Amino acid sequence: MWRPSFCAGVLVLICWGGAAAAQPIDPHALYEEGCAECHAPHAGDFAFDGLELLGNTLVGKTSGRPLSVFLEAGHGHLSPAEIEVMVKFLSDIRQSGRLFLKKCRICHSNAKELARHGLVLHDDKLYGRYTGREIARFLANHGRLEPGEVAIMLNVLKRQMLSAPVPDNRN
Is there a contact between 27 and 89 (Cβ–Cβ < 8 Å)? Predict the structure, then answer.
């Protein structure tokens, strides 16, 4: 006979497991834990020193091989989902043109820390966590950004927010 407490327990496990499965892969943690030991400590340095974009394909500067093919062959021992995240992560860094490094790093440590600790994302817009200012408007007169660079920086910062691990509040 099924008991209500047993059924409730099974339901909790199913929901709990589903939440864990939905957790996004944090590309920063993935790089730092799986790549930085052999490659540059910072993914941005590796993206520019070891890789290049040929059209829309990220390739190794030395080998000329697509990064995705290299990773799929077993380099880094990443799962297919991790490979997809890593290739997108490094491609996005290349496409940003190191804008954060050139314009923001003088005052802010890195984009990940700034975004994840200093900003909030609400209705697809970034706001200052403590000021409540809309960051798109704020950046128009901040950080020596050119008008065309504001959209790039917003994408960089949003990417940091969207790839952040979800806090585990189950304890």
Answer: yes
Q: Report pLDDT digits (tens) over 27-83.
A: 999 999 999 999 999 999 999 999 999 999 999 999 999 999 999 999 999 999 999
**Do 30 and 37 meet the contact criterion of CB atoms below 8 Å apart?**
no
| C-alpha closest to that of 89 among 118, 67, 73, 60 | 67
d(CA 155, CA 153): 5
Instruction: Identify residue 64 by its one-letter amino acid code.
Output: G
For helices 27-34 and 80-96, angle between their N-to-C axes, nearest 10 degrees: 100
Please, how many CA atoms are within 13 Å of residue 93, restricted to the half-sphere of its CB? 25
Task: Quote the tokens at residue 6.
Answer: 């047993």
The number of beta carbons lying within 10 Å of the beta carbon of residue 25 is 16
- Which pair of structure tokens corresponds to residue 150? 């504001």
Domain spans in the chain, listed from the N-terminal domain onward: 25-96, 98-163
pTM: 0.76
Model confidence pLDDT, tens digit, residues 74-106: 999 999 999 999 999 999 999 999 999 999 999
